[in-house]
Write a structure and sequence with these properties.
Strand 2 and strand 3 form a beta hairpin. The relative contact order is 0.13. Helix content is 39%, strand content 18%. The protein is globular, with a radius of gyration of 23 Å. By secondary structure, it is α/β, with parallel strands linked by helices. The strands form 3 sheets. An 8-stranded mixed sheet has the order 5-6-8-7-11-14-12-13, with helices on both faces. It starts with a helix and ends with a helix. Helix 6 packs across helix 12.
Length: 467
């Protein structure tokens, strides 16, 4: 028999349960932003991928947040990934089902995070230098980066000029710098664009771009007359526009709260897109989108992405819905629409020691594949000649295309033949240092990439067409 009172009691109990879940979710959100994530109990596994099909299985587990693959799978061989304690049983079952062999390389990733923290804390006392002298013996915070850029403008008023690319979701400046001989009158010169830091946890990328800035201005790389002559010649020929750190929100979050944070910090939606009846998230509130899947392209949102807003490869709700990617886009389109000649787009990431050429969204060869191959060969040779490090020259897509990256956007929208991505130190096998590349290697990474940039510029199609 129907009981009005019991029906109301049931609805009331459901309401109370859902309210408790909402409060719990809010408490979890507060906890996530108020303390440093330790990664205690997380494990690092290694699986050997002998076929394209098995790699796809791992990519699907990554999209579903069951694992976090450290670097994009671009070739067959070993793949390293992070497994949260609550997912260990599920991942074991999935890998067993698909006969993918694996081994546990690290039983507690928290130990690796703690080791890095201890190294960083030990170096804090050595960072006190003037703003005009950048300390490449440590990874610097955003404030120090911006102070150095401002100091360079003061020190080199005829060669350097800072500018605001835009603002982030959390209100931070996305600061750029223009470098050229006689910079105030350089707006007729061809433009070279460089950027770094689009993925928050890739700390060596913005550090390397800063080293390139210092090198172009003669703050470093002064002992080799050949290098100095090349860099000075480029400053006369080109106008460099550089976004040294283009994901400031994510970068600062990776420093203060979650060392492995990859994305932006803008609200993205609810896990699995599940919204509760009261309007909140049924499972979890998701923050951030992958800014290197957020660039508009013919193929946007179709490959190498996830529709789950909590995924590491969530491309956003639509192209350019992230403040930082939209700001860089607007700046570059403004240059194009003003009739400026942009000759190359170069973006710096880590890690894997790769030089990546178009395309990233398809396995098809680019019409200028022969040019890309020759240029890339010159770049990786220059890197090897500097410090002996082996980088691989290959197409960006590798085995598994991904949609919406910045280099593909620049190739398609800006019409650039020369649009490239660097994946810096260390190699893919060195996951233990991976995104946490020891500070002792910052300067050497910068040095070898000065040599790489020189080789890249010398082999641009701009010079071939000019001659």
């Amino acid at each position: 028999t129907f009981s009005y009172t019991s029906e109301l009691g049931f609805i009331y109990r459901i309401f109370i349960i859902e309210m408790l879940l909402l409060v719990l979710g809010l408490l979890i959100c507060v906890g996530e932003t108020s303390s440093y994530k330790t990664y205690q109990g997380y494990q690092v596994w290694k699986a050997n991928i002998g076929s394209v099909g098995k790699g796809k299985i791992l990519n699907e587990l990554d999209k579903k947040e069951l694992i976090d693959i450290f670097t994009d799978i671009r070739s067959l061989g070993n793949v390293y990934f992070l497994v949260a304690p609550e997912n260990i049983h599920k991942v074991k079952s999935r890998l067993s089902l698909h006969r993918i062999q694996y081994e546990v390389d690290e039983v507690d990733f928290g130990n690796v995070i703690r080791e890095e923290q201890q190294r960083s804390q030990a170096g804090v006392l050595r960072t006190g230098v003037s703003a005009s002298t950048y300390n490449y013996d440590e990874y610097q915070d955003l404030s120090t980066m911006h102070s150095h850029l401002d100091a360079l403008q003061q020190e080199f008023p005829t060669k350097a000029e800072t500018f605001l690319i835009g603002k982030t979701h959390e209100g931070r400046d996305i600061k750029g710098i223009i470098l050229s001989e006689n910079v105030a009158n350089s707006d007729t010169k061809p433009v070279i664009w460089l950027d770094g830091g689009i993925h928050a946890r890739e700390w060596v990328a913005p550090a390397t771009v800063m080293y390139l800035i210092d090198a172009l201005l003669g703050k470093v790389e002064t002992s080799d007359s050949s290098i100095r002559s090349d860099l000075d010649g480029f400053m006369k020929e080109f106008q460099f526009r550089i976004g040294q750190q283009i994901n400031p929100d994510g970068y600062e979050y990776s420093r203060t709260t979650d060392r492995m944070w990859r994305k932006t910090r803008k609200y993205a939606g609810c896990r699995y897109n599940k919204v509760a009846w009261w309007g909140g998230c049924l499972y979890k509130r998701c923050t951030g989108s992958d800014p290197n899947r957020n660039w508009n392209h013919t193929d946007w949102g179709k490959r190498g992405v996830s529709t789950d807003p909590c995924s590491e490869v969530y491309p956003g709700g639509k192209p350019f819905d992230q403040d930082n990617t939209a700001a860089v886009r607007d700046h570059l389109l403004g240059l194009r629409d003003a009739g400026r000649q942009i000759v190359t787009y170069v973006t710096y990431h880590s890690y894997s020691q790769l030089f990546l050429t178009p395309y990233g969204w398809t396995l098809d060869d680019h019409p200028e594949r022969a040019h890309h191959k020759a240029l890339g060969d010159a770049v990786v040779k220059a890197i090897k000649d500097r410090h002996g490090k082996i980088y691989i020259n290959q197409k960006s897509a590798g085995l598994y295309p991904a949609s919406g990256d910045s280099a593909d956007w620049a190739e398609e929208t800006l019409g650039l033949v020369d649009s490239y991505t660097f994946e810096l130190r260390p190699s893919a096998e060195e996951w233990r240092i991976g995104f946490k590349l020891p500070k002792e290697q910052i300067r050497a990474t910068g040095e070898e990439n000065v040599s790489a940039l020189i080789a890249l510029i010398k082999n641009l199609k701009y010079f071939k067409d000019k001659n």
